[in-house]
Structures are given as C-alpha cells and as structure tokens.
Amino acid sequence: MKYAEAAAQIADYRRQIHALREKLLQTRRAAQPEPVQDYELQSAAGAVRLSQLFGAHDDLIVVHNMGKGCPACTMWADGYNGLHPHLSSRAAFVVSSPDAPEVQRQFAATRGWRFPMVSHAGSTFAADMGYRSGTRWLPGVSVFRRSADGLARVGDTGFSPGDDFCATYHFFDLLPQGAGDWHPKFSYGAAGTT
C-alpha cells in the first residue's frame, strides 16, 4: 500500500476512534457515582484520609501504582512530572502505591518526581477499587468526587501497554516494527541499551 493510501486509511480509523471515544465518554458521564468510604492512607507526614487529598478541589485523581519494583509503573509515573502542574490546576492529583512513605520518598527522589504520593499499605483501598488480583497489585487510575453527600468514585480504568496514559507506546507505534520486544527498564544507560 502506498504511503498516501495508508495515511488516508489511518485518518479514517482515527475518525472512528474519535467517535467511539465520544460514546465512551457519554457512557462514563451517565454512570451513577459509586459511594466510597473515607479511607485512611499514609503519607510522609503521617496518616491522611482520602477526603484530605482533595485540597481545594472537588475532584481527585488517584493513580494506582504497583510500587518501586515495577519498571512499567515507574515509566508511567516518570511522565506525570510534566502533567502534574496542568492536572493539579483542575483537580487534585496523587499517586498511591503499596510502598511505605519513606520508600516512596526515597524512590521519588531518585526519579525526580514532584507529585504527591500516598501509601495504601495496611488498607483495603486499592483492593476495594479493583486494583488487586490475588497477591498482585494492578495499575490504573480512579477519579473521585467530593460533595455534600460524601465521597464517590466517578471513573476508573486500568493501565497497560498502549493505553492512553503513557505516550511512549504511541510513539513506538509509528516505528515500522512498533515496540517490538522492548520493555520498560529503570535505566537505559548512556546508549539506551541497559
């Protein structure tokens, strides 16, 4: 197929994806909020309630991160530094993991992360939100709304390679062989090969 023909077909697929995305958004907005309890989590400053994470906002974005042992979750989180100022101008934003706050602080410092983090260790928060399978934590994001009626989850989705929350795979999709057998690492060395 000639490049121009492929480009036209890709443009058509993008229009179809956009139409499906609009349907997805309409369905999400029509869903009833799911009431949630005011979980107690841990931060570097001590115990903190889910309701306290909202700050001055009525909306809260919580990323469910698998912790410092997961190179994929680390790559996703590396991308939040640039997004954090934009996101936090509209909603509160925090990353939650099973790691202890001190472990989070130390690991965040090695990565240059500037966004807030909390630990869900010792709570049922991540499991109740659907981000635990057996003994394994799962990555994703939940969005909560605070109102006079209490706290409610208004949206969530899991994370996986190629999702909308990590641009790396979308850039790789433009390469002739895509991502190939590439997998995220904590470090790639000077030549990008480690």
Question: Your description of this structure?
Answer:
The structure is a single chain. By secondary structure, the protein is α+β, with helices and mostly antiparallel strands. The relative contact order is 0.16. It has helices at residues 3-30, 71-78, 80-87, 101-111, 125-128, 167-173, and strands at residues 34-36, 40-43, 46-49, 59-64, 92-97, 117-119, 132-133, 136-137, 140-147, 150-158. The strands form three sheets. The chain has a six-stranded mixed sheet with strand order 1-10-9-4-5-6. A two-stranded antiparallel sheet has the order 2-3. A two-stranded antiparallel ribbon has the order 7-8. The protein has a domain at 33-158: Glutaredoxin. The chain is globular.
For this entry, give a set of tags.
single chain; 194 residues; two-stranded antiparallel sheet; 10 strands; 34% helix; globular
Nutshell version of this structure?
This protein has a domain at 33-158: Glutaredoxin, CATH 3.40.30.10.
Rounded to an integer, what's the Rg over CA atoms? Answer: 19 Å
In CATH, the homologous superfamily of the domain at 33-158 goes by the name Glutaredoxin
Going by CATH, the architecture of the domain at 33-158 would be: 3-Layer(aba) Sandwich
Order of strands, main sheet, comes to 1-10-9-4-5-6
Major β-sheet profile: 6 strands, mixed
Quick one: how many beta strands? 10
Specify the structural class.
alpha+beta
Number of helices: 6
CATH fold assignment of the domain at 33-158: Glutaredoxin
Helical proportion, percent range: 25-40%
Choose one word for the global shape.
Answer: globular
Spell the H/E element sequence: HEEEEHHEHEHEEEEH
Cα distance, first to last residue?
36 Å
The CATH top-level class label of the domain at 33-158: Alpha Beta
* Low-confidence sequence ranges: none
Strand content: 15-25%
